[in-house]
Amino acid sequence: MNYAFHAAAEQDIADAQDFYAQHAGFQVATRFLDELQHVIELLLQHPGLGTPTMRSRRVLPLKTFSYSVVYRKESEHLRILIVRHQSRKPDFVSNRH
């Protein structure tokens, strides 16, 4: 199985990485990306792992960072829709498909 990002999810990741680089340093920003990659690899192996939400979406939080990955399993791949900070309301950018 492979995966693809919604274009706006790529921006979510870039924004989070920039925030961590500016406020906590390059090493923390790198750890954020490493943990995100680990979660994506876990989801590729076990796409049903996240908590179901509406519209066939699932959500899985990162372990160390206060972010969650919102995704949907499509026929042969995983679609990462949102990488959202957990303080944001669940309906944040709910129009992404």
Integer count of domains = 1
Return the CATH topology: YaeB-like fold
Which oligomeric form is depicted?
A: single chain
What portion of residues is helical? 25-40%
Order of helices and strands: EHHEEEE
| Average pLDDT over all residues | 91
> Can you tell me the residue ranges where pLDDT is under 50 for at least 5 consecutive residues?
none
The CATH homologous superfamily is termed: RelE-like
CATH class descriptor: Alpha Beta
Q: What is the helix tally?
A: 2
Shape: globular
Structural overview:
- The chain has one domain (2-85): RelE-like (YaeB-like fold).
- The protein has helices at residues 7-23, 26-45, and strands at 2-5, 51-52, 58-61, 67-73, 77-85.
- It contains 2 helices and 5 strands, in the order E-H-H-E-E-E-E.
- The radius of gyration is 13 Å and the shape is globular.
- The protein is an alpha+beta fold and 97 residues long.
- Strand 2 (51-52) and strand 3 (58-61) form a beta hairpin.
- A 5-stranded mixed β-sheet has the order 1-5-4-3-2.
Features of this protein?
alpha+beta; YaeB-like fold; 5-stranded mixed beta sheet; 97 residues
Structure at a glance:
The chain is α+β, with helices and mostly antiparallel strands.
Helix-strand blueprint:
Blueprint: E1 2-5, H1 7-23, H2 26-45, E2 51-52, E3 58-61, E4 67-73, E5 77-85
Parallel strand pairs: 1-5
Antiparallel strand pairs: 2-3, 3-4, 4-5
